[in-house]
Amino acid sequence: MTSNARDRRLTALRASERVLSGKRPQTVREQLDRLATLDGLDELPDSYGEFGAIARLEQRVAELLGTEAAVWFPSGTMAQQVALRFGAELTGRDAVALHPMSHLERWERQAYSQLTGLRALWPTAAPRPYTAEELAGLGQPYGTAVVELPLRDAGFLLPSWDELVAVVEAARAAGARVHFDGARLWESAPHFGRPLPELAGLADSVYVSVYKALGSSHGALLAGNAALDGYARSWRHRHGGQLWTNWAAALAALDGLATELPRIPGYVRHAKLVATALAELPGARINPAPPQTESFQLYLPHPAEALSAANLELAETERTWFATGWTDALPGLAMAEIRVGADALEWTAEDVLAAGLRLLELVAKQR
């Protein structure tokens, strides 16, 4: 995408009066104005995370997840490398069991192997979470079993609670550790209907993001026991993640935990309403149906380019933002990830269907 096309898209999204999927981007001034309203402005900034907002954020996340400790990282990619390295050194095994559609494989440039020297074992290549039986059938030793909650690229898919417990037990039986790629753990918890400490307690380590759902500028935390805590701090430094100060990201994350985290179950419930309405569009497919988190995949029988153009026209002419990020999944069939947040709560099922039909009208006009 050229800079002009990107600027046009962002301008249209910011000017939209209604947003179904995603959220409006904020200017630097708007983000600074938000920071100026948060608690903690009169305390000294953190210094290498030793006190201040970062220390409070680490303590709060550990409390929420029920772990002994949580360590701040500037990115989830860095946090996950450290978690998998820890598992390899603790078990003496350089293999990692993970899904080929996982974030580690597709979106982190295989950092776990390129920088840490680990190798992957794939229990399955099917577009769904792997099962306990598939994990047990690997027939090779591995140090860590990685479970992405949810498996985003397969449609934000989650196992059932019993299936998840079975996977954990299979990994334990193989003498391996369990790591949850929980970049969207906050959004996954409602599906399981269990308290966060019970969910996180299944794993030896859990990575959570503080910018996706919680609205911080960046950052992640790696939670686990005291041994992981010390190891993670040492390797964070070696990876270049021992930044001088992170107070702005930490304050925003603390605010997100206090204000946004309680709203997420409502987003998950509303995603089901949105998906049901979208399923009525001609040729539409929803994956999964119903959604298991606040996000899901929408497929429509039109080229991605046409749908993107129609979405932009709808935003610029009627100030209604439907969805962006369309990609061609198959010839004549495009997919977009629908992410339901605060802006979508005002949409009724009738609103969703009407906007979808209007989008398709604009697509038809292009022919």
UniProtKB/TrEMBL annotation:
GO cellular component: cytosol
Pfam families reported in the protein's UniProt record: Beta_elim_lyase
Gene Ontology terms: biological process: glycine biosynthetic process; L-threonine catabolic process
Annotated signal peptide: none
Aromatic amino acid beta-eliminating lyase/threonine aldolase domain boundaries: 46-289
Entry annotated with the keyword Secreted: no
Needed co-factor(s): pyridoxal 5'-phosphate
One term of GO molecular function: L-allo-threonine aldolase activity
Keywords: Pyridoxal phosphate
Family as reported in the entry's similarity comment: Belongs to the threonine aldolase family.
Stated name of the protein: L-threonine aldolase
Native organism taxonomy: Bacteria, Bacillati, Actinomycetota, Actinomycetes, Kitasatosporales
